[in-house]
Amino acid sequence: MNIHKRTKRTPQQREEIYRRHHTEHIRVALLAEEYHVSRPTIYKIPARGRKRDFSIHNSCNARFRTLAWGMKRLAKIEKTIEARLKKEAKRYNKSYPGEMLHLDFKRLPLLKGQDHTTPRDYLFVAIDDYSRELYAAILPDKTAASAGSFLGQVLEECAYTIETAYTDNGKEFQGNPEHHAFAELCMRNGIGQKFTRPATPKTNGKAERVIRTLMEMWHDKERFESPEHRRKSLARFVNYYNWVKPHKSLGNLTPGEKLCLYFFRQDFVNNP
User: Fold this and answer.
1) Residue 111 to residue 113: CA distance in whole angstroms
2) Fold (topology level) of 101-270
3) For the chain, what is the HEC assignment?
4) Residues 159-202: pLDDT tens digits?
5) 193: which strand partners?
6) pTM of the entire predicted model
7) Which of 54, 141, 156, 239 is most exposed, with minimal Cβ within 10 Å?
C-alpha cells in the first residue's frame, strides 16, 4: 500500500529532474506538480544529484511505514483468528447410522455429441450423516417420481434403518403423501422428513459437499462415451468412495470401516 501517488521516482526520472532543475532552472514547485511529488522530495533530488546519487531511497514517511506494518500485522492476525476458528469449529455429526440421511440432486452436463435438445440427466445423491456412506444414481429428470425411485434404491441397498431424510424444500421432496412418490415412500417406511430453511441450500452442506466431490473427482476427470458408460463409472466411483477413500472427518477411516467399527466393533478391533 502506498499513501502518496507515485511516490517513488525511477533513477532516470531523478536524473532528469536534477538536469532540468540545475541547467534549465525550472522552479521546484513546477517540478513537484509535474512529477506528482512533494516539494521536499524535489529539494532532495538535486542535493543527492550533486553526488551523482540517483538511487531510490527507502521512505522515511512515518505514517507510511506505520500503516504498512499495521496492514501486515492485521493480515497475520486475521489468519491466526481464521485458523483458530476453523480448529474450534464443531461438527454436528449424528451418533449412529441412519439417524439422518442427506439427499440432494444436480443437473449433469451434456455429454460429447449431445446438443441442447437432448434431455438432461440428473445426479441424485444420499449420504449418511454418521458414516458418510454414499448412495448415488443418475435419473432422467428431477420429478417426485425420480426422487421416490432413488429413495427406493437406497432403501434396497442400505443395511440399516433410516430414521430421517433431510432435503431442501423442492417439489421433488415435499408434498402430500397421497399423491407424492417421495413423501409416500417416506411415510410407508417410517422415515421422518426434515427440510432446510428456505433459500439456504448450504444448510444441507453434507449433500452439497459430496456433490462437489463427485463432480471434481469423478465427472470432471473422465470422458464418457455414452449415458450408460457414465452410469457404470458412477457405480465404480461410489464403491471407491465408500471403501477406499479415507475421510478426515472420520479420523481417516472410510465410510465402510466406520460402519464396520460401529456394528462389529470387537471383531474389527481384533482383526483390523
Assistant:
1) 6
2) Nucleotidyltransferase; domain 5 (3.30.420)
3) CCCCCCCCCCHHHHHHHHHHHHHCCCCHHHHHHHHCCCHHHHHHHHHHHCCCCCCCCCCCCHHHHHHHHHHHHHHHHHHHHHHHHHHHCCCCCCCCCCCCEEEEEEECCCCCCCCCCCCCCEEEEEEECCCCCEEEEEECCCCHHHHHHHHHHHHHHCCCCCCEEEECCCCCCCCCCCCCHHHHHHHHCCCEEEECCCCCHHHHHHHHHHHHHHHHHCHHHCCCCCHHHHHHHHHHHHHHHHHCCCEHHHCCECHHHHHHHHHCHHHHHHCC
4) 999 999 999 988 999 999 999 999 999 999 999 999 988 777 67
5) 165
6) 0.65
7) 156
At 263, list the grid cell.
Answer: 456394528
Mean pLDDT value across residues 16-35: 84
- Contact between 177 and 187 under an 8 Å Cβ cutoff? The reply is yes
With b for 16 or more beta-carbon neighbours within 10 A and e for fewer, the 175-191 pattern comes to: beeeebbbbbbbeeeeb
Q: From the CB of residue 249, how many other CB atoms can be counted at a distance below 10 Å?
A: 12
